[in-house]
Amino acid sequence: MTGQPAFPLAAYAVHLAGPTDFDGWRDAARRLSTNEVKPEDIEWHVGGEGDELPAPTPGVELRVSRDFIERAAIVTCHSDSERFALLYRLLWRQRSEPHLLRIASDPDVRRFEAMEKSVRRDEHKMHAFVRFRKIGDGDEERFVAWFEPDHFILELAAPFFVRRFTRMHWAILTPHGSAEWDRERLALGPGASKDDAPAADQSEEMWRTYFANIFNPARLKVKAMQAEMPKKYWRNLPEASLIPELISGADAAAREMIARMPTMPAAHHQAIQARHWPALEPSPETEAHSIDALRQQASQCRRCPLWSEATQTVFGEGSDNAELVFVGEQPGDQEDLQGRPFVGPAGKIFDAVLGEAGIERTAVYVTNAVKHFKFEPRGKRRIHSKPNAGEVQACRWWLAQEVTLLKPKLMVALGATAAQSLLEAPVAITKQRGQTIKRDDGLAVFLTIHPSYILRIRDPQEAAAERARFVADIRTVRAMMAG
Question: How far apart (Å, rounded) are the C-alpha atoms in residues 327 and 154?
């Protein structure tokens, strides 16, 4: 026994270039398998110098399903140090057991499936819980995020953020690697520490406000919420600081939410309506020489049936000398009650985005394509209903008069209805967003989304991405006005 090793040495030591070097594993596996090297005769390592491997045996084909190859690439991202050995063992066994992956009770298959599921779940959590922080301004503006995944998923997850934040210059830092997108190219780099990430910025408060607004106390299920948002992620989520308070106050908040739901019709609807329809007869639509005069005429508009159920006309407001005009779709519930455009939830987003883009709301003019609230009664609530083409056409007269009096340099169509009214043709906002179209009269119309679209997105990450795009659109508008 003297001079003999306590345990038999492996025939080959394979050293891969990195923790997710699937191509390196695949090449080594092909060489070793076709040379009949058994799984127990191989040691798999990450980094360092390995043995010279034999060339693939000529004439020997290695047949394996595409499904296994695709899933093996995912499992390569797992943090288990035995992942490469497991993959080779499964590859080796499939030579004589071609249907091995269908045997759910097999220990190797069970482990393979569990590792794949764990990686995919980790990737999903990264998509959901990465929070960018802004550094720099103007041409130096960048967004940096810190995230601590369980597995080596950065390269796997990064393309998602490229698609979502194509127009942003961003970087994601993790302990095992980093990714940077400069609006043209994705670059992968070494790992970092949390100290390398920027401190909290103003967007933290935006996340907290957004999370508080979408939190529905009536549907709270604490265990389900913690299963979807495990506590280990909370330390890097700005909105997590609100969770204990929101949970503790959920019952009271649900009762308050029910109590403040608008009635149908609104309790003070008739009183307000009586003030605005004193004669119940439309005023003659003569040419107005000022926005105030036009507003007075519109207060008794009967051009379509929407006036009869609405509380009041919601006309445009802002600077009478505005060179920049924003046009939305129609008033909402709060706008109908207050008589002012963009004062509800979508209006709050609109105001915040204007501020971030460097535009003062008081310096612009804000109006809607349709001046009365169209809704459907649903219990005690008034639910927004999209105006039809006839209603948009009937109200176009008022919008045209606003344009004539204001003589703006640029119009911004917020959503498809506004674009249709301004351009007198259907517009696909998702395809034409960010474009500027000149009308026959020379007026330029910039196309973007309505801020209410952001409110309808339930996924916080997607909502944040759309909000960032909206801010970018409005900054483009500001640049056009300055040019």
Answer: 41
